[in-house]
Amino acid sequence: QVQLVESGGGLVQAGGSLRLSCAASGRTVSSYTMGWFRQAPGKEREFVASITWSGVTYYAVSVKGRFTISRDNAKNTVYLQMNSLKFEDTAVYYCNCRQEWGQGTQVTVSS
Q1: What is the distance between the alpha carbons of residues 73 and 51, in angstroms, rounded to a whole number?
Q2: How many whole angstroms separate alpha carbon 82 and alpha carbon 68?
Q3: Ranges assigned E (strand) in the chain
Q4: What does the pLDDT look like over 24-60, one tens digit per residue?
Q5: Quick check: 63 and 48 in contact, CB under 8 A?
């Protein structure tokens, strides 16, 4: 079983940047696809980005060109670099690995 812990959220002005981290423990995740999802108040959880074991990345249309997902297998960690943040990026961001989810980290973008 994998435990996932997100960090790096916070309050930022529109146009700013944040870098989220997801540290995995319990087992190595280097052979798994890792993903980031987010859930805004009153909305369903939605896909943000994912990265396969080989480094192939996928992005939601709404974040493509602004967000970058990456992984450091030596650290068993996945990152989400978020640039040019918009008010509508405000949400709780969750890390995912197979059926496991982290507790989430809040990202708030002020307009």
Answers
A1: 12
A2: 7
A3: 3-7, 10-13, 18-25, 34-39, 46-51, 57-59, 67-72, 77-82, 91-97, 100-101, 105-110
A4: 999 999 999 999 999 999 999 999 999 999 999 999 9
A5: yes
